[in-house]
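User: Here's a chain of 338 residues. Predict its fold as tokens.
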Amino acid sequence: MAKSKGQRSRISTDVDFNADGKQVGYLRLPHSVHRSAYGYLAIPIAVIKNGKGPTLLSMSGNHGDEYEGQIANSKLIRGLDPKDVRGRVIVLPMANFPAAHAGMRTSPIDQGNLNRTFPGDPNGTPTWMISHYIETELMPLADVVLDLHSGGSSLNYIPSALARITGEKKRDARTMELLDAFAAPISYLAAGMGENRTSTAAAERTGRMIIGTELGGCGTVSIEGARVAVNGVRGILEHMGIVKETDVLRKRAKTRVMEVKDASYYVYAPQPGLFEPFVKLGATVKKGQPAGAVHFMDDPGRQPVQATFNAAGVVICERIPGKVERGDCLFHLATDVK
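Assistant: Prediction complete.
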């Protein structure tokens, strides 16, 4: 689906983005179905504003089974007092609401993956309408966008922040400042990140700064990932001058800056079957090293097929379910920036 040029979103809201104070309300996405002819999907949104100043848009629930960011943003909504703010914070805790409500990566309504639908379509199905609203209505209000992701149900990450390097010196320098402020254990950079349909691409089209995260996964709430998310959001708010700096956050350990150079940093299942991993999350591996083996349980006399690392690096992401199909991601590497 493609965005209709110049057409405003059909999504409306009862919050006033320009009013001081704290507002917790909803985006209303028209949704006419059998059980509700004139109904709407109520997508939670909050605005916390005090006077003039910069604006942060903090999103989570882009993928509905990624929970650490949703926890952090819900805490942000409850805990941030307008009197402590200079500027504005817009919080979208369940960005793809149908997916987040169902605890699924994609929407159960239209099977849409929100982070593959930008710039969206105001006349599309719910996922496309949401991405269109975020890119055309919310992002233009912000100076910085924070999109909090995790590994979801199928992956587990060392808590990390990530960003795309564009080659524009000023923008890339600001990106590094944001990663430093978020201060995840790892910050990894990618030159491509391969998609023009993501929130990263949307922010770049609107001229806004953006960083993302991968905060854990396993379809659970990681204690460490949730902690990194809460502290990271606070670090971004302090860096932007929206809230005052604190001694505790200034003393945090610096992020380890790494990079993902190309597709060789990923390992994929070569066959469908049952995957036996040979390495753990955080392991340092060599190019050509066996990553694991796919077993064929319905044909136990058949020899397993081996998966191999195609690059050297640190394992920052691992697959969770044991059952795999050909093409499932098994591991994801990163290497230190030199």
